[in-house]
Amino acid sequence: MVTPSVEHGKIVYHDSPLVRAAKHGRILVLDEADKAPTEVVALLKGLIEDGMLTLPDGRKLCHDQTSDTEDIISIHEDFRIWTLTNPAGFPFHGNDLAREMADVFSCHNVPAMDVDSNRKILGSYGPNVSSDLIDKVARAWEDLRIAHEKGTVVYPFSLREAVGVVKHLNAFPKDGIQEAVENVISFDRFDETLVKRLNGIFSEHGIGLLDKKVTTKQSGRVEGGISTPKTRASEPKHGKVDPDNTPHVGGNTWAGGTGGSDTAGLGGRGGPYRLDAGHPVHQISDEMKAQVSKEAQEKARKMAKEALQKKLNELEMGKLDWKRYTSLRNQVDEQISQLRSYLKDLKKRSEERIWLKNQMTDENKIVDLLSGEKDVFKRRGTPDEENNNSIQTEPIVIRLIVDISASMYRFNGYDQRLERLLEATVMMMETLTNDKRFQLHIIGHSGDSEKIPLVNPKTSLDEKTQLQVLECMVANTQYTFAGDNTVDAISSAVEEAGKGDLVIIISDANLDRYKITVDDLNPLQSEKVHAHLIFIGSLGDEASELAKQIPNDRAQVCFHSSDLPLIIKQIVTNALRV
Q1: Sheet strands (E) in 320-415
Q2: What crossing angle do the helices spanning 333-343 and 564-575 adopt, rounded to 10°?
Q3: C-alpha closest to that of 137 among 179, 165, 112
Q4: CA-CA distances (angstroms) from residue 316 to 83, 190, 529?
Q5: What are the tens digits of pLDDT across the range 325-369?
Q6: Does the CA dihedral 356-360-366-371 come out positive or negative?
Q7: Which residues contact 494 (CB under 8 A, 6 or more apart)?
Q8: How far apart, in whole angstroms, are the C-alpha atoms of residue 37 and residue 55?
Q9: Which residue spans within 431-518 are E strands per DSSP?
């Protein structure tokens, strides 16, 4: 507020920019106000709310226009404060100023500039750089901005870095655009995952950073069409195993067939459980399914339960496929790295900053000491710096409610929804492993139950255990009976959650078939928890239409199952900012 200095042997106070702006009716611009300490924010808010502020030299800033004394500084009626802040959280590490002061400011979100505006600004910094290079840099940085908004790039590369590239090209044209870009991102080369992502973005604009290019593999399956079973439904059985894995359609002999009767397969009726042999799936009608007798259904259900129990027993015996786990883990390695980067700052923001006493003063504070300022012997810091115990905060509870119903297995061959669900589950388990700030619960829901415990905070999430969880999920999708308990799973999860818990529900519910309406999803609006529903898969537009009706962005549709890990990551990081 005032700055003391020694002039001619006397202590003299000079007014700060805040005091001068208030006195003369100017606009005070506070850049990066989110970096201001808590006590400064409190003083500033007090000035705005109360219209009065006591300065260290005893004078007062106030709106009293009638007083005309040396101790009173009247605040000019034209005095205004503009604050510029960064978004809260990573990577700026600032305070959430909007949360603390939004009630006394008129808040505006400044959107990113468009490509044309960026192109003009870059051109002003590089008058000797060709328009083609300017355009290439502008478009590359636009893609970087979009990648950050989607969450695929953690750091928000801004126009500042693009200006650095153009200034480099303007001063050293012989270096070329690749070297200019390399100069800007050189520090990021320590992050192998980020470098791969940047290479993919820059290479689309003809800027090569790496010799190796990242490729992604996509897979899908052709629909097999409608099937009419060749035999009547009778006794459920596993079926014979075809050593040649020949496609079988409409029969009741071979395991892994489609559109048939009695045997384990896909798209048929009366079989004990699902079995995917990798062939196009031929689907029979619901009317034909209804022809299966209740006795046969009960026998099939019993066989499914026995097969599920056998599979779970095998998992406990350690018959695990390490390659299977690593293939899933590698698919989300980048998302794991990014999510860890986001969450690592959470601990810093949760620590309470206090006054540390008995601190050494420096020579710049001698004048403050002579003027009677007592705070020169203490400073702001965390309790750890004073060798005290940190203030213990409650762990953050994350409840991941996963869909392990029959349809996840049934339609996995078409859109890989089960694969993406497993990858998302690996991402959460691996990211939060051994992180005491979090407590992770993973609970499945299927046609048989709305609550199938898979992981709790006491579960040791080593690789072996993680793979057991994944195989258990697959086993449930294969052997559970058709049905949906999404609504009950949401209600149960929200009811059991504590205040402030994050609840993420994943479902591929057939909304029309199970008569699910927006009113059934009211528990998502609970003020007690952060609850979010992700529809993975949809018949037509029914999931999209329902998601639009759910307030507060508490539901969304995953149109591409490969986006599921990214969507979960965005929900986690957004929820934990508040």
Answers
A1: 354-356, 379-381, 396-403
A2: 0
A3: 165
A4: 59, 40, 34
A5: 778 888 888 778 777 776 765 544 444 444 455 555 555 566 566
A6: positive
A7: 503, 523, 524, 526, 528, 529, 531
A8: 17
A9: 438-445, 452-455, 502-507
Amino acid at 182: E
CA 2 to chain centre: 43
Q: What is the mean pLDDT of the chain?
A: 81
CA atoms within 13 A on the CB side of 162: 27
Question: What is the token pair recorded at 279?
Answer: 């062939």
Q: Hey, which residues does 74 pair with through a beta bridge?
A: 62
Name the residue with tokens 């920019």.
17
| pLDDT tens track for 33-55 | 887 777 777 788 888 888 888 88
* Structure-token match 């489609």, residue found: 258
Cis peptide before 91 (omega within 30 of 0): yes
3-state percent breakdown (helix, strand, coil) of the chain, nearest 5: 45, 15, 40
Contact 309, 451 (CB under 8 A): no
Can you tell me the distance from the alpha carbon of 141 to that of 201, in angstroms, rounded to the nearest whole number? Answer: 9
Q: How far is CA 356 from CA 39, 376, 384, 391, in A?
A: 14, 11, 10, 14
**pLDDT tens digits, one per residue of 57-86:** 788 888 876 665 778 888 888 999 998 888
- Residue that the structure tokens 């307030």 belong to: 551
The C-alpha atoms of residue 358 and residue 386 are separated, in whole angstroms, by 10
Question: What tokens appear for 450 in the block?
Answer: 């709305």
Entry field: residues in the chain: 578
